[in-house]
Every structure is written in structure tokens, then in C-alpha cells.
Amino acid sequence: MKLFTAEQIYAADKSTIAKQQITSDALMERAAEQIFNWIHSRMQGAPVKIHLFCGIGNNGGDGVALARHLKEHGYNIAVYVVNYSKKRSKDFLINLERLKDRKVWPEFLEKGSKYPDIGRDDIIVDAIFGIGLNRTPDEWVKQLMEHLHVSEAFILSIDMPSGLFMDKVAEDSRGVVKSNYVLSFQVPKLVFFLPDTGIYVGQWEVLDIGLDPEYLMTTETDYELIGKQEVLPLYVPRQKFSHKGTYGHSLIIGGSYGKVGAAILASKAALVSGSGLVTAFVPKCGYVPFQTALPEAMVIADRNEAHLSNITFEIEPNVIGIGTGLGTEEETIRAFSDFLENNKTPIVIDADALNILSKNKALLEKLPKQAVLTPHPKELERLIGKWKDDFDKLKKVKSFSKKYDCVLVVKGAHTITVYDEKGYVNANGNPGMATAGSGDVLTGVITGLIAQGYEPLIASVFGVYLHGRAGDIAIENTGYQSLIASTIIDNMGRAYIDLFEIPEVPVPVEEKSNSSRSDE
Ligand SMILES: NC(=O)C1=CN([C@@H]2O[C@H](COP(=O)(O)OP(=O)(O)OC[C@H]3O[C@@H](n4cnc5c(N)ncnc54)[C@H](O)[C@@H]3O)[C@@H](O)[C@H]2O)[C@@H](O)CC1
Ligand SMILES: Nc1ncnc2c1ncn2[C@@H]1O[C@H](COP(=O)(O)OP(=O)(O)O)[C@@H](O)[C@H]1O
Ligand SMILES: [K+]
């Protein structure tokens, strides 16, 4: 799913209005009806108090139009206009008049107004600002937002949590609504997935308001959200007349005394992602544990007991995953540098191998083209330097990826893979995956996919998806706390199978309650 900028969404609105020959007011009505239907199908007329806080732009217009529908269906509402500017939008005013025609008189809130009482079991609709926010809200609006939070009532935001910018991070967190649920029009927004701004978004859902499909299809975006629909076309089926050689040979280089497990996890992950053969290159101390824990893998032992000292081998792998559990001994750094000097094989670089690169930036020039780097936030900081906020980080990541022609897999709650000026934002995964070794598993998965012939960028995007999906399937049995990296590996098979499982089509509520014999 593409992640559009505010400018692109405004252009889509415009194109929709022109092509479908409707007014902007009709589009707002569509949006409001969609929100109303969403609420109504869940609340079924329940008399819970709904407080609607509406700005004076089109986001506020959506809120005011929603209030009219709620009123017409007998809901218990209170409407407030957050009067932060004199510049009211045309469609806001049209909808305000319609509301007054139905004898609903909103309360106008201004600087110094007393804020309304809100019970913790009430519902707040947040329609103060949408994608049009262009400066920090006034102090009194921030105080109003704090008042909403203090109430502890459930907050449903329209389109965006009010106070979130589309392209930068708010300086003052008091000026952003912490939303429990966001109903976002047509497309989710990039800021929902970044660590600095995603914290304001509890859950989100997209409402289709029928924006011009042609515009949406043909417009290129800088970021794309990756889900099953996006990765399915990437999948390459296995052939009947194939053999293990068809699916490549991965070499995992890593491990050191006390950290051999990291290399085992990566090797096993390469196998379960489908690599035909896997060899591990480990220090001597890793030989026996490796052969015991993972009989499917072949093992080459370094002459050194505790860490790698000389990375040379006779085999010809078609991809190398390096760094998991590697350590940063002087000898290992030298061995890694010598190895890079001669290596032409596609490579996935993680953990200590990244740390070595950070300390010896000249080595970055030696990487084969489209090397995949998989840093967690600390490793990324060592690699690209400190950043001001998430947008600054993404800018730096893009220029780093361009400079060294590498695929950067920026790991996090929503891992973002960056290459060729474009970012692929992973939608799945869960906090259970914040556990030792889950990154080692990802390295193995991406390595195993490259072994099978997937291009490095595709392998990264697909690998991150499969890894996250395996983690999501795993927690169905383990819960968050008890998920360990090995269990992600154990569920890779189910993640593959799940690609082809057709999701259950949800039955609309009315239909469900009307059909007494649904199993016929
Ligand atoms: N065509 C339509 O009628 C549609 C409207 N939609 C709604 O329209 C929203 C965008 O509406 P707008 O462009 O009117 O913008 P907003 O309603 O987000 O903001 C209102 C206006 O306030 C001003 N403003 C920005 N920051 C301010 C601040 N800190 N203090 C005071 N004033 C400030 C800006 O001029 C801005 O246009 C979307 O988020 C969505 O909710 C669409 O999603 C659906 C189609
Ligand atoms: N809160 C989270 N939600 C989703 N995925 C997460 C979360 N925390 C971590 N992950 C994923 O788990 C992995 C952690 O990698 P890393 O920090 O390198 O672990 P390790 O070094 O222990 O192997 C990454 O793929 C990351 O995206
Ligand atoms: K809003």
C-alpha cells in the first residue's frame, strides 16, 4: 500500500472531485458516512456519551458532518468547535449550518473557555486537525488536548491524531492527541509507523472514501507499506525437477566464544527460509555445538579457538551472511577487512560486522554492490551518526544507501528497508520479537532468500515480512513475553503457508444478526 504525502492526498481529493464530478462537500459527506457506519456498526445505538471536538478546517468539517449523522440516529452527543482560527473552511461552514438546522448548537471553545466534563466511560471523537496541520497548536489547544487525555475516555481520531504533522515530528508532545483508534481516509500515513510519531496511534484502520483509483495507482510514492498483498507477487514457487543446488548455498560467518548460538540461529533461519545448503564458518569452539544443534548445516572451523582469525574458505557460496556473534577482537577485525578486500559474493551484514564497518568507514567502499545491512537503532547510529528525529534519520539512511549502493534494513517495531531512494515499511511483527537473537534470525532469513535467487532488495523486504509474520503466528501460542528467537524459526513454515491462506471475509454485523441459520 502506498504511503502518500499530504500534497498527494490533496491532489487525489482534487482529481476525485474533477473526475467523479462531485463537490468537495459530497466527498466530505462520503467520509462522514463511512465514519458513522463504522461507529454505528459497533455501538448499535448505545447511549454512551460521545463528545465531538471539531476544528474549523475540513477535518473539523468531517467531525461536524459525523455529528449530524449521530444525532439523526439518536446518539447522545455533545459537539464542540475548537475555534483556533478565523479561517473556517467552506465545507466546515456548510456542515455547521446543517447541524444547526437539526437544532444542534455546538459549544465554541476558545482561549480561556472552561473545558467540558468528560467521563472516563465516554467516547471522544478527535476531529481537531487532520493532514492540514502546519504549525504547532496554540497553548490553549494543547491544554485542551491534555484535558482530553486526563479524562481517560476512549479517543477515536478522524484521519490522524490531531497535532501530528505529516512530514515532521511535533516539538511538544502536549500538542498531539494520543489516539486509541484512528480511522484514516483511504490510506494510512507514514507517521503511523515511525517510532517518534507512531506512539500517538493506538490502532488504525483505513476507510475507503473512493478517491480516484487512477491517481492512486499511477502516483509514485517515497514509501510503501508492506503487507501480504505486496509480498505475494514476490514469492517464487519451488520447481518439481529441482535439487538442493537449485536453491543456493548460504555461508554464515560469525560466532565467538559465548556467542556461537547467534550463528546457529542465523544458519537455521537460512535453512528454514529455503536455502538449499548452509555452511557455517565459526571459531573452533563452535564446531561441536554446531554439529550437535544443527545437523543439517556443514561447518568450517577457524584455526583459532575463541574467535575468527582468518576468513578464507574453498567453497563457493552464492551468498554470505556475516556478523552474528562475531565479536570485535583485533584479529577478527583484521580477518574481516582481509575478507572484504577479496569478496565478490553478495553479502548480508549484521551485528558486530556492522560495528566493525562503523569504526573503519573505508571498508564500506569494499562492499559488493547491493550489500544488505541490517542495523538495529544503536548499530545504525554508529553507522550514520546521530539524527534529530525520524525524518532526519530517513534522510540520512537514504543518502547512506545511495552513497554505498547498499540496502539498509532499519530494524524496529516497523522495520523500514531502504534502497534507491525508496522506503518499504513493514506492517507486521510484534513486541514479543524484542528478544535476544531475533535479529540473528532475520539475517539468516534474508541470506537464505538471496541464496534462492531473490534480489537483495526483494529478499530484504520479503524476509522482513516473513520474519514478522512468523513472530505474529508464534505469539498465538507463546504470548509476547515467552516468545524466543528459536520459536520465530519454528514458525517460518507457517509464515510461508499463510501467504496462500485466503483471509476469512468478515460478515457485516446486520447480516450476521439477521441470519439465524448461518451454517446452511
Ligand atoms: N475534500 C474533503 O472535503 C475531504 C476532507 N478530508 C478531511 O480534510 C482534512 C484536511 O483538511 P484541511 O486541509 O482543512 O486541514 P485541517 O482540518 O487538518 O486543518 C485546518 C486548517 O487549520 C490551519 N492550521 C494548521 N495548523 C494550525 C494551527 N496549529 N493552528 C491554527 N490553525 C492551523 C490550516 O490552514 C489548515 O488548513 C483531512 O485530514 C480530512 O479529515 C478528506 O480526507 C476527505 C475529503
Ligand atoms: N517492538 C517490536 N515490534 C516488532 N518487531 C520488533 C520489535 N522489537 C524488535 N523487533 C524485531 O526484532 C529484531 C531485533 O533485532 P536485533 O535488535 O538485532 O536483535 P538481536 O541482536 O538480539 O538478534 C528486528 O528484526 C526487529 O525488527
Ligand atoms: K483528527
Automatic annotation (TrEMBL):
What name goes with this protein? Answer: NAD(P)H-hydrate dehydratase
The major lineage groups are: Bacteria, Pseudomonadati, Bacteroidota, Flavobacteriia, Flavobacteriales
